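A note from the maintainers: we've had questions about how concatenated examples are separated. There is no special marker in the raw files; a new sequence line simply starts the next protein. For clarity in this README we add a label.
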Amino acid sequence: LPAPPRVTGPLHLKTKSSAGAKLAGMIFAALFWNGILSVFVVQVVSGFQHRSPEWFLVLFLIPFVLIGLGLIVAVFYFLLALFNPRPSLTITPGTLMPGDVLQIRWTLSGAVQRILRMKIDLEGHEECTYRRGTNTATDTSVFHSSPIADIQDLRQMTIGQAQIQIPADTMHSFAADNNKIIWTIRIKGEIPKWPDMKDEFELTVLPLGKRA
């Protein structure tokens, strides 16, 4: 594939998955799982109503019902997370290679005062996809992780900047059918008695010599 166009100036990054998309995905999963499960639950309830409970089916369904309840709880978790503060991230330069110094500038909108502590980290990980019988599985292995910022001051959380060097001896971004090398900036804000703020921004790190 041809290299992306060179970006020497700032580049605004987008989150890998928005809070709304996460909530929609969880709602779909909960409706799909519990919709199928409800057919068997109705059968169990009917058995109790007719005083002939199917105890084997009752015991068999218990773990599946617990998973269904967990999905419903997760829906409410992501619904609350929808109201978390939202970070905006800009990097300079927009085109990166191993060894480059990355300038990062962030702003945070919303109820920032609810966050006690915000951490920003650079992470590189590999995703390997393979088949197990008829199923497809993906393993993730982190090969690099380094802190960018650890902030407890409200003003610095609202707007700030930092820099970090992409390791010179590391692997660049890569995507094939079964293997991927992905670089991300992860932002986490600790919020008491509420779902934490968690956002992930993907970087593109080009091979050496591919910037132009």
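[label: protein 2]
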Amino acid sequence: RSGPSTDSDKVDKLYTGNVVETQGFQDGWYKIESGYISAEYVVQADPAQATLGQEIADYALQFLGCRYVYGGSSPKGFDCSGFTSYVYRQFGYSLNRTCSGQLDNGTPVSMSELQPGDIVIFKKGNANTRATHVGLYIGNNQFIHASTAKVGVIISKLSDAYYTTGFVGGRRIV
């Protein structure tokens, strides 16, 4: 909004997961670079946590284009849970090796609370497991993951129907 009120004009849009720096607070509204946002839509991040999460997300991006290998957990080839566990291992964190197992790591976060560095977990099809796929949230409604043998490590949007219908949870590791 252009001012700290719902009566003020809309000047821009922010999407869930966007990270912005606040410049002040007035009457239940945060001042941000492009205007004001109601405090009811803001989740305050621990700066140290947010910085490490972003470092982890940035580190993961170097593997964009790496090949997919079932059971792989190194830059020579990753499967989805091998990718997330490898990235986190470089920062001193140990994740369970399977998608379902990674549901037990960290603390749960909803899709609207995701921050860079969180893992995002999905279940598709009729598998007898709690989860079938995992990736690493990088911000702006996107995540990086070892997808398939055809495309390898790619970036996808959480808003793609394939992922919104299968989302079972996010986990905050740091």
